[in-house]
Write a structure and sequence with these properties.
CATH topology: Four Helix Bundle (Hemerythrin (Met), subunit A)
Bound molecules: fe (ii) ion
Number of domains: 1
Radius of gyration: 17 Å
Number of helices: 6
Structural class: mainly alpha
Length: 184
């Protein structure tokens, strides 16, 4: 077990919870009725997924893993490109919402959900197990400390609490408390 990987898996759980809710609202053709809540959900993706989670992977874990686990180096470069693609989808979805273009929003949001589902599955099933095998324990501790500093400085000590509350709240408001469905 590597704490620097476990924390990213925990992030994935929060990301998937919110993306799954967005996917469900679109799938059941209820997007037009819930545009303000969907905007909150996509803005959460901009902050939690792009600026927080992907930033931690790109700034801290991936560079360390590229050195100690050469086997995944090329894959990590591609995963970084996929982060940039996700960022573009988030921005396009927000733009469509601002313009009141519901069908473009639905298409962009659906694309984001699908793109991130595949990306997260690949990290969890193929990339992280390799990193867990080869990352030195000292490096793991260092990367973990870097995450902590990055979060406390840019997002606040209670960022996980706030993010979990948001994920539960948006789920309850958009699909009801009983909704639970993995997107793996
Ligand atoms: Fe990633
Ligand atoms: Fe990730």
């Amino acid at each position: 077990m590597r704490i620097s990987v476990t924390i990213l898996q925990y992030d994935h759980g929060i990301v998937r919870q919110v993306l799954d809710v967005v996917g469900e609202v679109i799938r059941t053709h209820r997007a037009a009725k819930h545009l303000p809540e969907l905007k909150e959900a996509i803005m959460f993706m901009e902050q939690f997924l792009d600026r927080f989670h992907h930033a931690k992977e790109e700034k801290f874990l991936f560079p360390a893993a590229a050195e100690e686990c050469p086997k995944v180096k090329a894959t990590l470069e591609r995963l970084k490109k996929e982060h940039a693609q996700a960022r573009k989808m988030i921005h396009e979805a927000l733009k469509a919402l601002d313009e009141g273009d519901v069908s473009t929003f639905e298409r962009q949001a659906r694309e984001l959900v699908d793109h991130m589902t595949v990306h997260i599955s690949e990290e969890e099933n193929q990339v992280f197990p390799v990193i867990e095998d080869c990352l030195q324990l000292e490096t793991d501790a260092l990367v973990h400390a870097q995450y902590e500093k990055f979060m406390n400085k840019g997002f606040g000590k209670s960022y996980y609490l706030v993010s979990e509350e948001f994920a539960n709240d948006i789920q309850e408001r958009l699909v009801g408390p009983g909704f639970l469905k993995g997107i793996n």
